[in-house]
Specification:
By secondary structure, the chain is mostly helical. The protein contains seven helices and no strands. The chain starts with 8 loop residues before the first helix and ends with a helix.
Length: about 150
């Protein structure tokens, strides 16, 4: 007959999850973030919570990570790079604003202005091509507005 004080793998996993939750609460991170940092597996704690087991050395690795990083600030967020796709979107927004302005100044509908100014429009795959096309469209719109303003 088993005694009530037997330490089982299930209780070891439950203790690890409890320790991990406390660590996450103290350090302002999620369990998924901790599991990514500690064992390079974002679903590690989800699996433990759902009933899976893990090796004692994995538990030791997680506990060692938590001990080493207790109280240290979490990593700074990664800088987002402003690639050509971001620039293309911003320029395309400027094109829309310029079309609306031209529509107000000339009294023509935005669709009419689009068909007059952008006769050679076509689909571009690369973001850089989209950005270049948007720049050309803005130049054409500015010329169109200046011509109509005279």
């Amino acid at each position: 007959m088993k005694s009530a004080n037997t330490y089982t793998p299930e209780t070891a996993v439950a203790d690890l999850v409890t320790e991990a939750r406390a660590f996450c609460a103290r350090n302002g991170i999620t369990l998924a973030t901790l599991s990514c940092y500690a064992v390079n597996d974002g679903k590690f704690f989800d699996r433990l919570i759902s009933g899976s087991q893990c090796l004692p050395r994995t538990m030791a690795n997680v506990r060692a990570y938590m001990a080493e990083h207790e109280g240290k600030p979490k990593r700074a967020p990664r800088r987002t790079r402003k690639g050509p796709h971001i620039k293309a979107r911003a320029l395309e927004d400027e094109v829309v604003k310029a079309v609306d302005l031209a529509s107000e100044l000339t009294g023509l509908s935005p669709q009419s202005i689009g068909s007059i100014v952008f006769k050679d429009s076509r689909f571009y795959r690369s973001a850089q091509s989209r950005a270049d096309r948007a720049k050309r469209q803005i130049e054409k719109l500015n010329a169109f507005i200046q011509e109509r303003a005279r």
